[in-house]
Amino acid sequence: YALLKSGGTRDSKDWFLAGRTLPWWIVGLSLYATLVDSTDLVVDSGATYGGGVKFYLINWIGCIGGWLLLAHGIILPMYRSGMYTNAEYLESRFGLSARVTSVLVQVLYRTVILGMISTTNFLTLKIVCGWGDAMAWTVVACIAVLATFYTMAGGLKMVAITDSLQSIVMILATVVFFFIVANEVGGWSGLQAKLTAESAELEQQMMHTGSDV
Questions:
Q1: pTM, whole model, 2 decimals?
Q2: Arithmetic mean of pLDDT, 179-191
């Protein structure tokens, strides 16, 4: 569907900026899908278990605030000036050295993140689906190849439309899953009671929302 809707990319403006034709709601859903990936299953869950709900809250408050600042303070002036990437923006503001440094940092950072995403996808398929290592890694590789193909074929418009569809599925699934889990544990008080029954120390550890200071 996304491939049909994206059409052909005629030039760099189409590939990088989707021809400036994307409506705001597709941009918003695409930002959401970009923000959330399989590493959150590991990072947020592990941080909440080890240090309490405060880490989860801090993460999402920071994400919302950061995206609002990025959307209104950086992305708009950057795209309106005709730039395609944040590296171009940094060069215009701080010089070539800032652009080169940002590119090196982003390549390193995204390589690490892609490795984490691939590993968590592999573990999810292996544990949830019960697949063997070879099967799980094969599916992960196929997903990576498919994502590379549709990105190269349709550029940003293809990615944004695909992200939007994925975001709708994720949001609906999250709402359904939230109410199922809340019902099973008996809400917030039920969760506290179950954790306390397991270990009073664990309840204090996981339900902690305030500062340690």
A1: 0.74
A2: 88
Q: pLDDT tens for residues 19-62?
A: 777 888 888 888 888 888 777 777 788 888 877 788 878 877 87
**Number of Cβ within a 10 Å radius of residue 136:** 19
| Residue 132 backbone phi and psi in degrees, to 5 | -75, 170
Residue pair 167/29 in contact (Cβ under 8 Å)? The answer is: yes
CA angle 153, 119, 203 (to 5 degrees): 125
Tokens standing for residue 62? 């920071």
| CA distance linking residue 13 with residue 156, whole number of Å | 10
At residue 208, φ and ψ (nearest 5 deg) are: -70, 125
Spell out the residues 6+ positions from residue 163 whose beta carbon is closer than 8 angstroms to its own.
29, 30, 32, 33, 34
Tell the residue number behind the tokens 């799980």, with chain if given: 136
- Nearest Cα to 51, choosing from 190, 207, 213, 197? 207
